[in-house]
Amino acid sequence: MNNARVDQLDFLRGFALLTITLNHYSWFVTRAGYAGPAIPNIRSLGFSDSAPIFFITSGFLIGIIYCAATRPPDLIKVSATLFNRAVQLLAMNCVLFVIVLAMFSLAPVQLEQIFNLHSLQSEPYHWAYEVLALGYNLPLLDILNVYILLLLVAIPFAWLVRSRPKQGMVLVAAAYVFAQFFPHFAPRGGDLGGQGAWFFNPLAWSVFLLGGMLAGRFQLHERIRALAVAEKGGRKFVGALVSMFLAFAFVRVLADLGEFDVPLTGKGTVQPLSLANALVTFVTLLALLFRYDRLRTWAPWRFTYATLVMVGKHSLHSFMASVALSYGMLLAWLQIGGTIGYVTIAAAGMAALIIFGAVLEVLKAARTGKLQMVRRDPVDISAAQEVSA
Question: What is the per-residue burial (b if ≥16 Cβ within 10 Å, else e) of 334-350?
Answer without folding.
Answer: beeeeeebbeebbeebb
